[in-house]
Recover the amino acids of this structure.
């Protein structure tokens, strides 16, 4: 596969811009290799420039791809754009998804009138959505590491431990196995708290008979994993089992539908229909899944409003959930690679309802 910068340059004519100003740090990391906290890049057919301030000059010398000209700028990096911009009339794309209004006003003031600012957010994200073999390899290793940590934590049992204790133990174990950090704040939510899709772990002990939603991921070599399992702390009761099986069949139907050419909206609908048929449509209030890579939430999206179409190299989650207010929640999430001829689940944990003490 062509390099990321080459693929980006191919998109510029269609976006009707001559060069793209990249200010989002994740996009900069993706395109240049630099992972410091202040930097910008300017990319066009004739331009490849990177600027940072004095604190990061050494780091940039080590990390930034040698095809980029490097400029040292003042702390206010935007001033560097004026010197890096090519001659003549320039349609300059900027990231309107991430750029603050104030920065945009400052840029307009700094640049001569021959430069037209064109909102071009999402271009780099489109390229990031298609992973090459090395990126897939890193995501796979992050997922395997996260799997191992989960199995380790569950072996110690859940009943009597607090949500926060389990979350901390999980995160500690991932770091011990080499993760740079958790790819997001882990969710451990027991009983009725599991009905909050983005619950924060509390100092509340897990009781026998409760369902526990665990959503966690590892970041390793820059790439993230993301997985959810719902575990029974002792016998959960008939209702909870029925809902678990419903969510699992929706998840399997969604996974089955993942392949190149399918729309994000279509795949969402396939899983959603299963949950609606089970009478829990109003208890599944979020999208079916999202892309995962350098960021834990990125393109493409699987949701009722998605306009994305899956292509080989996408790595997405499939994570339907049913949240019964005041009672319990169930979510099951896997990470899936879209391949040339279908799809492949990247993580490896079983999805049978796991019952632990
Ligand atoms: Zn998740
Ligand atoms: Zn997710």
């Amino acid at each position: 596969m062509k390099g990321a910068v080459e693929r980006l340059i191919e998109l510029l004519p269609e976006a009707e811009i001559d060069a793209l100003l990249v200010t989002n740090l994740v996009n900069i990391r993706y395109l240049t290799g630099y992972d410091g906290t202040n930097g910008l890049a300017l990319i066009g057919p004739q331009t490849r420039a990177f600027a940072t301030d004095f604190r990061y000059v050494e780091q940039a010398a080590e990390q930034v791809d040698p095809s980029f000209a490097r400029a040292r700028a003042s702390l206010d990096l935007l001033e560097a754009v004026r010197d890096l911009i090519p001659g003549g009339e320039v349609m300059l794309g900027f990231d309107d998804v991430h750029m603050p209004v104030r920065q945009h006003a400052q840029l307009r003031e700094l640049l001569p009138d021959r430069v037209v600012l064109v909102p071009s957010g999402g271009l780099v994200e489109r390229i990031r959505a298609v992973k090459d073999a090395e990126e897939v390899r890193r995501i796979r290793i992050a997922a395997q590491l996260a799997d191992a940590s989960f199995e380790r934590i569950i072996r110690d049992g859940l009943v009597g431990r607090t949500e926060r204790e389990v979350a901390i133990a999980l995160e500690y174990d991932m770091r011990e196995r080499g993760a740079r950090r958790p790819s997001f704040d882990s969710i451990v939510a027991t009983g009725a708290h599991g009905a909050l899709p983005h619950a924060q772990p509390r100092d509340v002990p897990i009781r026998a008979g409760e369902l526990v939603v665990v959503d966690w991921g590892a970041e390793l070599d820059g790439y993230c994993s993301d997985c959810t399992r719902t575990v029974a702390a002792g016998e959960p009761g008939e209702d909870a089992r029925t809902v678990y099986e419903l969510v699992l069949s929706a998840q399997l139907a969604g996974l089955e539908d993942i392949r190149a050419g399918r729309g994000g909206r279509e795949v969402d609908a396939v899983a959603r229909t299963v949950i609606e048929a089970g009478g829990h449509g109003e208890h599944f209030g979020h999208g079916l899944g999202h892309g995962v890579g350098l960021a834990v939430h990125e393109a493409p999206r699987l949701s009722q409003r998605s306009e994305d179409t899956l292509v080989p190299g996408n790595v997405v989650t499939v994570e339907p959930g049913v949240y019964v207010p005041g009672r319990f929640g169930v979510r099951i999430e896997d990470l899936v690679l879209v391949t040339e001829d279908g799809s492949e689940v990247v993580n490896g944990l079983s999805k049978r309802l796991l019952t632990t003490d």
Summary: The domain at 2-128 is CATH 3.40.350.10 (Creatine Amidinohydrolase; Chain A, domain 1). The mean pLDDT is 96. The pocket of zinc ion (ligand 2) is lined by residues 226, 290, 317, 319, 333 (CB under 6 Å). Residues 67 and 330 are 48 Å apart (CA to CA).
